[in-house]
Design a protein that fits this description.
This protein has 382 residues and is an alpha/beta fold. It has 2 domains: 2-177 and 361-379, Rossmann fold; 180-359, Glycogen Phosphorylase B (Rossmann fold). The protein contains 13 helices and 15 strands. Helix 8 links the parallel strand 11 (234-238) and strand 12.
């Protein structure tokens, strides 16, 4: 099959959406399919793969790392006419997702849409009229879903969210898979050597965008009390974002900067070693549609303690490979301290985490996606 991915975010920008697109792209190509990715341009891009087409773009005013594409190109029509895609798969309902929708309609081919993000939970990035913006975003998302032949979601929680929004298109659950081999046989001593952490100390790891929606201040407040109970514990935060400087200043003001490490962005190989060297993965985001980083931690055999919210609630098997808690400092702290103190429980959870991660291997999820493409093509939907 020939599949055109249309996305408003792609490398060098990093996010769960970009990770998902990259994972499915690699698996689909490995299985003999052709994928062409239509994405925004970024400054200083070098050596783009031949299957990537870039639209001219400008930095987003509220997030300079993110690019906003101009939804037009003189070359797009020629590329599509020459390549003749069989399916358009959109990964955003906005700028380039809209372009993908128009292309699908003109080419009379199916439009697939993956609902990656709870877009209405990100309106804090708009400087004014947030309530109006939230309603507009929900309306755009709902209408885009209902124009699609099928909507893909990573979790059942997101399916329910869309149904409550008024989405009537058929919805299918296909999570983003994990390339399990990337997280096996990693050096578990690298992390502590890298950050000069004594061997006897325990390490908590957070991976994600340093933005308001990730609820990181809650995590830092919890860690302050965890550190008081278990002196010598460290928290490593991997990622960057608009709240980074404020978060760093917060840790300095509270006298926690020696035990809280801001590691910045990391590439794939470094990420695997960060997971491998940690004792526990901690996650407090309230807006995840899946919580892909929890799945990565599981693949590395790292138990998680996470706030029970949206898609995260389906990524942790509570009491088996980690714990889910309410948005409550005391309950979150209790579970973290319990797992850090109880080595036997943590080892048992670690083994179950690896077993459970195998259920969402990237190959298995890609095969489900291919089956979905074939179903839609057989239906002859336009």
């Amino acid at each position: 099959m020939k599949i055109g991915f249309f996305t408003d975010s792609y490398f060098p920008y990093t996010s769960g959406v970009v990770h998902s697109i990259d994972t499915f792209n690699q698996e689909l190509v490995a299985l003999g399919h052709e994928v062409f990715i239509f994405a925004p341009s970024y400054p200083n891009i070098q050596d783009d793969p031949k299957n990537v087409f870039r639209f001219s773009s400008l930095p987003a005013p509220t997030n300079r790392d993110f690019a906003l594409a101009f939804p037009y190109s003189f070359y797009l029509g020629n590329i599509l006419e020459k390549w003749q895609p069989e399916i358009i798969h959109a990964h955003s309902p906005f700028i380039l997702g809209h372009v993908g929708s128009i292309c699908a309609r003109r080419l009379k081919i199916p439009l697939i849409f993956t609902f990656h993000t709870l877009y209405d939970e990100y309106v804090h990035y708009f400087p004014v009229a947030r309530k109006i913006t939230k309603n507009v975003v929900r309306s755009i998302s709902r209408n885009y879903c209902n124009r699609s032949n099928i909507v893909i979601v990573p979790t059942e929680v997101v399916r329910e969210h869309l149904l409550q929004m008024g989405v009537s298109t058929h919805i299918k659950k296909i999570p983003t898979g994990i390339r399990l081999s990337e997280f096996s046989d990693q050096d578990r001593f690298w992390l502590k050597k890298q950050y000069y952490i004594p061997d006897r100390c325990k390490v908590l790891l957070f991976v994600g965008r340093l933005g308001q929606e990730k609820n990181i201040y809650f995590l830092l407040e919890c860690f302050e009390k965890i550190l008081a109970k278990l002196p010598g514990t460290f928290l490593i935060l991997v990622g960057s974002g608009p709240e980074e400087e404020k978060l760093k200043n917060w840790t300095i003001d509270r006298g926690l900067s020696k035990n809280i490490i801001f590691a910045g962005k990391k590439d794939k190989s470094e990420m695997a070693r960060h997971y491998a060297g940690s004792d526990l993965f901690v996650f407090t985001s309230l807006t995840e549609t899946q919580g892909l980083v929890i799945a990565e931690a599981k693949a590395a055999g790292i138990p998680s303690v996470a706030v029970k919210a949206n898609g995260v609630s389906e990524m942790v098997e509570n009491g088996e490979d980690g714990f889910l808690t309410d948005v409550d400092h005391d309950s979150f702290i209790e579970k973290v301290v319990l797992l850090l103190k109880d080595n036997k429980m943590r080892e048992r959870f670690s083994e179950m985490a690896k077993e459970n991660a195998a259920r969402i291997s990237s190959r298995r999820c890609a095969l489900k996606l291919i089956d979905t493409y074939r179903e839609v093509l057989l239906q002859g939907g336009e």
